[in-house]
Amino acid sequence: MLPRINPTKSEPIYIQLMNEIKYSIAGGMTEPGELLPSVREMALKLRINPNTVARAYRELEHEGVVITRAGKGVFVSEARRNPDKRRALVEIKNVLDGILVDAFHRGVSVEEVRELLDGRIENLNKTRAK
Amino acid sequence: MLPRINPTKSEPIYIQLMNEIKYSIAGGMTEPGELLPSVREMALKLRINPNTVARAYRELEHEGVVITRAGKGVFVSEARRNPDKRRALVEIKNVLDGILVDAFHRGVSVEEVRELLDGRIENLNKTRAK
Amino acid sequence: MLPRINPTKSEPIYIQLMNEIKYSIAGGMTEPGELLPSVREMALKLRINPNTVARAYRELEHEGVVITRAGKGVFVSEARRNPDKRRALVEIKNVLDGILVDAFHRGVSVEEVRELLDGRIENLNKTRAK
Amino acid sequence: MLPRINPTKSEPIYIQLMNEIKYSIAGGMTEPGELLPSVREMALKLRINPNTVARAYRELEHEGVVITRAGKGVFVSEARRNPDKRRALVEIKNVLDGILVDAFHRGVSVEEVRELLDGRIENLNKTRAK
DNA sequence: GTGGTCTAGACCACT
DNA sequence: GTGGTCTAGACCACC
């Protein structure tokens, strides 16, 4: 569980950290119930501000991905909070539209996008298999 | 060519406008060589500030999507500037990873993502067919 | 004497035309005393607005490069108006500074700039030799 | 790092500022990784609008000369983005042509241009030596 | 008519 | 504290 952070990217660091943690869970590398590194420990490892780590954990809790127990630490949620799937589908749809348009303007065909997606799915399943 | 803008969204207005225009071109609704509405006209239609439209046009020119001729107006590029396809593929790959992870955490399966993509491709081609 | 104009460039058309004419004179392809194409003829050839050609001729006259004789046409100046050489040197110096800095930031060494300059001098003399 | 700006010149202020910063980097007076003055600070020093400074910084980022980190500031790029050198050479060639023609029409010989260039190269290297 | 620049000043997000 | 966005309104150059 050592996320990769790129402080130069325009994407906020706390968002990058959230995504890394979510990726780790989706890929099965971090399991429900598992204890995440403490705010300070994570901040030290990544050489970022503890406030930034705290913010990431706070937002993850808000999304129902983790649960913080006072004096104990931050744990990956056991039960998933019932997510609003309809909303998720709409948002994913929008991002996909954005990808297709961007691809077009950069000389990438829809078929290539489809192949890329298949590749990424395979890749994600592979880490889960481990 | 009447983009839809949502000023309440966190996404900057000028980015939304850029995406709407790129979508319109990718879908074939706006063709190469075509003259876009003037900065002032577009600003009036969308009820936003002319500077915001100008910013969108400027960035699109930077991307090679449009060409502005002083005193004439802003036109959709005829020839595409040779895009860095390798870089595009890497970036698209990253966005797809993000989608898959997000989908997982919101109860959407990879198959559903695949179906969504197919749906969006069909939708884009439909507008082009017209 | 058929200048090349690129309407898509950000550089104003009338400036481009001025430069083409000056280049033609500097290279010896157009000689002092020679009659330039009329405003209308030039405009037709280049497919640009006659006002734009007129503006170029007007500015060239202002610089002492051409002389317009009412009812006769526009001629290349025989005698050079005494130019302000000191000022010219300062301005050229500034442009050279700009080139060197730009070159640095684009991976081009000063030696390469020097070689480029020598090449361009040779090229200009060649056309003059013809 | 205190650029000189001339608001009366026809050259846009933000372009002048960009060039001053690039000159400072090319001359070695400002080094990779260094933090530039904040937008507000620079605006105060130069007595120009913060938006104008922001525009200069934004365009420099676009060119890969600086990197901005939200909430931190704007830094000089460490690694140069691989520039398109071939294109750079062509463009520099064109500017050199323009200089030679301009020089001719203002009574400045090619030898003098060559000497000017050598002088500017020396000048740039001098600041770097410090 | 067109786009381009600049100013003044407000509000927001990130660290 | 930092940069980013947006508005309102003025002025200029080009066609």
The strands making up the biggest β-sheet of chain A line up spatially as 1-2
Low-confidence segments of chain A: none
Strand content of chain A: 5-15%
Question: Which chains share the greatest interface?
Answer: A-B, 42 and 41 residues
Number of domains of chain A: 2
Largest sheet of chain A: 2 strands, antiparallel
Which homologous superfamily in CATH is the superfamily of the largest domain in chain A?
A: Winged helix-like DNA-binding domain superfamily/Winged helix DNA-binding domain
Shape of chain A: globular
Question: Architecture of the largest domain in chain A, according to CATH?
Answer: Orthogonal Bundle
Describe the protein:
Four copies of one chain form a homotetramer. Chain A is mainly alpha-helical and 130 residues long. The first copy, chain A, has two domains: 13-76, Winged helix-like DNA-binding domain superfamily/Winged helix DNA-binding domain (Arc Repressor Mutant, subunit A, Orthogonal Bundle); 85-129. Helices cover 58% and strands 6% of the residues of chain A. Chain A is built from five helices and two strands; from the N terminus they run H-H-H-E-E-H-H. The first copy, chain A, has a two-stranded antiparallel sheet with strand order 1-2. In chain A, strand 1 (66-69) and strand 2 (73-76) form a beta hairpin. In chain A, helix 1 packs across helix 3 (50-62) and helix 2 (39-46) crosses helix 3. The longest helix of chain A has 21 residues, at 85-105. The radius of gyration of chain A is 17 Å and the shape is globular. The interface between C and D is large, with 41 and 42 residues. The structure holds a DNA duplex (15 and 15 nucleotides).
